[in-house]
Write a structure and sequence with these properties.
The structure is a single chain. By secondary structure, the protein is an alpha/beta fold. The chain has four domains: 144 residues, Alpha-D-Glucose-1,6-Bisphosphate, Chain A, domain 3 (3-Layer(aba) Sandwich); 99 residues, Alpha-D-Glucose-1,6-Bisphosphate, subunit A, domain 3 (Alpha-D-Glucose-1,6-Bisphosphate, Chain A, domain 3); 85 residues, Alpha-D-Glucose-1,6-Bisphosphate, Chain A, domain 3, CATH 3.40.120.10; 73 residues, Alpha-D-phosphohexomutase, C-terminal domain (TATA-Binding Protein). 37% of the residues lie in helices and 21% in strands. It contains 14 helices and 18 strands.
């Protein structure tokens, strides 16, 4: 059964434009607090956020909800999602919460929740929280001395900076490396440039002037053009683009060309395999990762384990099957030796270490395989599910048959917005384009 509030990555939507309101955030705080109360002691929750204006509103409502059921709240302020996961563990908290809509525009926002061990919630726990949200919460509120309190943690950024640096050996030094880092006017606008500078790099930050409305606006991993231009202008060695909450990353090489998550994972796997650090004899990626990555790994005697889209599903497979590298083509990269969720900055540091060790330009180090032509078409719909339409099903079946064994056709509904994503992949780019076009056209007729 479909969940009412939670999607593939927490609760997300237009702030005050639908389900995501202060009232819901208040009830999420109360319900989540009740779900994680485990004994007779003062429970803790840490709350971080990105730089959206609506974050103030949602943070205050969540704080009211958590304190109402007797939890003490530690506010972190603007902080990357992986920092919230890390600080949940470090501060011995019972819950971690990140207020962010990741790469979405500023009008949207979201609520991501972490367990005490820093991992995201399972479907069953989300279902339990949803039932509590719609239940009688008023009867379970604390009174008097039982009500929680809140405080701001001033050193949260410093803690994350030190954590990120410790993911590299002490001898690693990026002195002489010219780095442009694009923080998307988002959660990492302070900590990411600081980490790189403390590791010795010459840092040129962009996207570090948030005003509440400009997050991901023409900057960041989903809009890399500004970074590409700045890398070429400054003749930098490398460009790093994070998204709004810094859990994903893409790179730009010295020529201004984009390096996506598939290539980054290939670099890390190669590097870790050489050092004997790789576990699971390969990596975990989603159905969206390029066929070229799969062929590359196969040629090296490594394997690619595929999951459905969503970093939580990547992580579940990593934990179940013993992998320590996984991620998505979009740049969500999980390195379980260090993190419990995607961490764009930590992933970038691992790639930079490989670049330094190989003593070659980024364009050579990060060009591990030839990409198979892959085309995506996003079709927005208003209601229902167009994929249940009989004609659409027929077109999808016929299109898959046209590709035969020479490619892949992936059609899925987005978990964060009303969009059907049509992805085609194969050696014959013309055929792939035709197949994607035909399927998207059929969906639009009923959308």
């Amino acid at each position: 059964m479909a969940r009412k509030y939670f999607g593939t990555d927490g609760i997300r939507g237009l702030a005050n434009g639908g389900k995501l309101t202060p009232e819901l955030a208040l009830r999420v705080g109360m319900a989540t607090g009740l779900a994680f109360k485990r004994g007779d002691y003062r429970h803790r929750v840490v709350i971080g956020k990105d730089t959206r204006r609506s974050g103030y509103m949602i943070e205050a409502a969540l704080q009211a909800g958590f304190t109402a059921v007797g939890m003490d709240v530690f506010r972190l302020g603007p902080m990357p999602t992986p920092a919230v996961a890390m600080l949940t563990r470090s501060l011995r908290a019972d819950i971690g919460v990140m207020i962010s809509a990741s790469h979405n525009p500023f009008e949207d926002n979201g609520i991501k929740i972490f367990r005490p061990d820093g991992y995201k919630l399972s479907d069953s726990v989300e279902k339990e929280i949803e039932e509590l949200i719609d239940g009688d919460l008023g009867a379970r509120l604390e009174q008097g001395r039982g009500i929680g309190r809140a405080k701001h943690i001033d050193e949260a950024g410093t803690r994350y900076v030190e954590y990120a640096k410790r993911t590299l050996p002490r001898h690693v030094d990026f002195t002489g490396l010219r780095v442009v880092v694009d923080c998307a006017h988002g959660a990492a606008y302070k900590v990411a440039p600081e980490v790189l500078w403390e590791l010795g790099a010459e840092v040129f930050p962009i996207g570090v002037e948030p005003n509440g409305f400009n997050i991901n606006d023409g900057v960041g991993s989903t809009a890399p053009e500004a970074l590409q231009a700045k890398v070429k202008e400054l003749r930098a060695d490398i460009g790093i683009a994070l998204d709004g909450d810094a859990d994903r990353v893409i790179l730009v090489d010295e020529k201004g060309d984009i390096v996506d998550g598939d290539q980054l994972m290939a670099v890390i796997v190669d590097s870790w395999a050489r050092r004997g650090q790789l576990q699971g004899n390969g990596l975990v990626a989603t159905i969206m990762s390029n066929l070229g990555l799969e062929r590359y790994l196969t040629d090296k005697g490594l394997q690619l384990e595929r999951t459905k889209v969503g970093d939580r599903y990547v992580l579940e497979t990593m934990r179940a099957k013993g992998y320590n590298v996984g991620g998505e083509q979009s740049g969500h990269i999980i390195l379980s030796d260090f993190t419990t969720t995607g961490d764009g900055l930590v992933a970038a540091l691992q790639v930079m270490r490989a670049i330094q060790e190989e003593e070659k330009p980024v364009s050579e180090v990060c060009n591990r395989f030839e990409r198979v032509p892959q085309l995506m078409n996003n079709v927005r719909f208003k209601k229902g599910n167009p994929l249940k339409d009989k004609l659409v099903k027929q077109v999808i079946e016929e299109s898959s048959a046209r590709l035969g064994g020479k490619g892949r056709l992936i059609i899925r509904e987005s978990g964060t917005e009303p969009v059907i994503r049509v992805m085609g992949e194969g050696d014959d780019e013309g055929l792939v384009a035709a197949v994607v076009r035909d399927v998207a056209k059929a969906i639009r007729k009923v959308a």
